[in-house]
Amino acid sequence: MRADQLIVNVNVYNSSYKRFEPNNVAVLNGKFMYIGPGGPELLEADEVIDGQGKYMIPGLIDIHLHIESSMVTPATFSHGLLQCGVTTIVAEPHEMANVFGLEGVQEMMAASRETVVDMFYSIPSSVPATPMETTGGSIEIEDMDVLLATGEIICLGEIMNYVDVIRDPDCKTNQILRHIRQNYPDLVIEGHTPKLLGLDLHRLIYAGVDSDHTHQSIEGLEARIAAGMFIEIQEKSMTLEVMKYLMEHEVSQHFCFVTDDVMPDTFVARGHLDHIVRKAISMGMRPEDAIYAATSTPALRMKMTDRGSIAPGKVADYMLLSDISALAIERVYKNGRKVYDASEPYEQQRSSGQFPPHFYRSVKLSSLGADDFVIRVADAGGNDRVNGTRAGDQVHSRTEAVRESGSAAVPEEDVFRCRVMMVKDGSTFVEEHIAQVKAVDGELQWEGSEYGLIATFERYGMNGNRAYGLIGGDTIKRGAIATTYSHDNHNLLVVGRNRADMVLAANQVIESQGGFCVVEDGQVLSMLKLPVGGILTEEPLTEVSRQVKELRSAMLSLGYVHYNPIMSLSTHSLAVSPALKITDHGLIDVNAGKVVPLIVD
After folding, report:
1. What's the farthest any 2 CA atoms get from each other in the chain?
2. Is a pLDDT exceeding 70 seen at residue 405?
3. What is the pLDDT of residues 73-122, one digit of tens each?
4. Strands (E), 213-317
5. Exposed end of the chain (fewer CB within 10 Å): N or C?
6. pTM score, two decimals?
7. Beta strand 19-28 pairing with 2-14
8. 439 and 359 in contact (C-beta within 8 Å)?
C-alpha cells in the first residue's frame, strides 16, 4: 500500500493510554493512516523519515488565547507558534472587536486564512466588556449570526460580564446566551468567572457558561469540576497546590492547558503553550499527562474530532522531540509537511498592509496639554464625565456658574478623602484604598502627594469622554507611561507622576496612531508603535520582542514593581477584573458593577 510519508523507529504517543509505544507511522493526504510495527515491507512511501528513537507527539492545541496580546498580526503569530510545536489555536479577537466591532473580527479571520497554523475563532461575546465604557465597536446578536454563517466559528468566546448574567435577567449578555442556546445549541460557550462560588457559580453554569480560565484556587477548582465545568489552566493558576491537585485526582478529562495572554518578549524567550507543558513537567506532572492536557482534552473541549492524537484519520500535525522531559522540539510537521526544523534557519519575511487602510487611522484624538491632566474637585466629587472640551476649562466655567447662581458653595476644605487604585505585584487585580489628598483653588494636588495620576481619554471620536483617578502601590514612582493598549476598550490610558511627562507620553502615542510610550524628565525612554488599530504591529516577532523587552525595562526603571508591568498597566481599564478600575466613564467598582466617584463623601 502507498503512503506519502513513513516515519520509522519512533516512540509514538498513544493518547488513549497516555503512554509512548515504539512504532512506525504512515501519513496519507495530510492525515495519519497507520500506526503500528509495519514498515517499508508493508508500506511504500514517497518519503521515509528515520525517527532515530525520538519521541513523536501530536501538535499542541491552545483553545483560549488572544493574538492581540502578543501585539502582532496573525501571520507573525503563526510563525512564532510553529517553532513551539503549536499547530492549532482558538483565538478570540475581542481586542480588535473593541476597536472595530464586527469588521475587526472579520479582518482578523481574513488575515488568518493563509497562515500555516490552523486558526479557529471564537465570537467575542462581551464587546464592550461592560456598559461602563466607550469602545470603537460592539458585537451584537445580529453580528454573531453573520459570523456563525461563515462556518469558521468554533465557540462563543468568554462571557466576561458575569455580574450582570447573575443579577440582570434582561441584560445584553443574557440575551446573547438565550439566543445561542436556542439557535445554536451545540456551540461551545466559554467563561470568565474569577472567584465565583456557590449559588452564583451554579446560576452561571445554568445559563450555559461551562468553562473557566481565570486564576484558580483549590476551593474554586473543586467547586467548578464538581459542577461539571471545564477548567482551562493558564500559567498563573499553576501553583504548587493546584498542580498537586491535578496530579493526584482523576480529573484529566476536566482540564487542559492554555496561554490566554503571552507577551512578545516572553514568547521569544520561553515559548508559548510548550512552555506551559514544560513547566507542568518540571512541577512533577508526568510528561504523558502534561501532553494530554495540551492536545487531547483541548480538542475534545472544542469538539475537534479530527485532531489531538496520533491515530488513523486524524490530521497529521506532529513534532519530533529529542528529550521528552525537556520537551526539546527538533522538528514540527503540519498536515504531514515539515514546517520547522531546529537545525535549519527559521526567518520571518516582513510584510505590511495586511489590513484595510482605516485600520491604521483609529486614534482620533487631538494633542493634549497640561490642563488635560488637572483633577478639579467639582468634577471628582460628582464623578461627572468631561465631554468635548478641556477638563480645566469646563470645570472652571461650571464652578463660576455655581458661584454666580448662589445655589451651592465651593467646598472650603483643603483635604479630601479620595479613592486610590493600589497596584499590587503578582496580580492584575487593583485594590481600592482611601487616602487624604490636599486641594488648592479647587484642584487636587496629586503632584505633591504620594500618589500618581491615572487618566483615560476616549479615542474613537465617539463622545470625547475622559476620566481621572489616583494610583499608588507597586506602580511607577516618577515619569509617565501612555498607551492605547488598554484592555478591553483600548482608549488612551496615561499614568504619571508629573503633568509634563504625561503630556509628552500621551502625544507621542497619539502621533504614532497607538502604542506605548515611557517618559522621564522630558525624555522618551521607550516607544513601541502599534499602528494597526492602536494595538498591533506588523514588525517581525523578534523585533517586537526586542522593543517590548526595552519597554518593560523602561517601565521598571520608573519604579514599577511587577512581574509583568505591561499587563498590569494595560488592565487598569479592564472593568471586569477586581476591584477598582478606570474607564472613560470614571472609576469602576468592579465587584459592585457601578461607577463610583473619585472623592468619597
Report:
1. 100
2. no
3. 999 999 999 999 999 999 999 999 999 999 999 999 999 999 999 999 99
4. 230-233, 255-257
5. C
6. 0.91
7. antiparallel
8. no
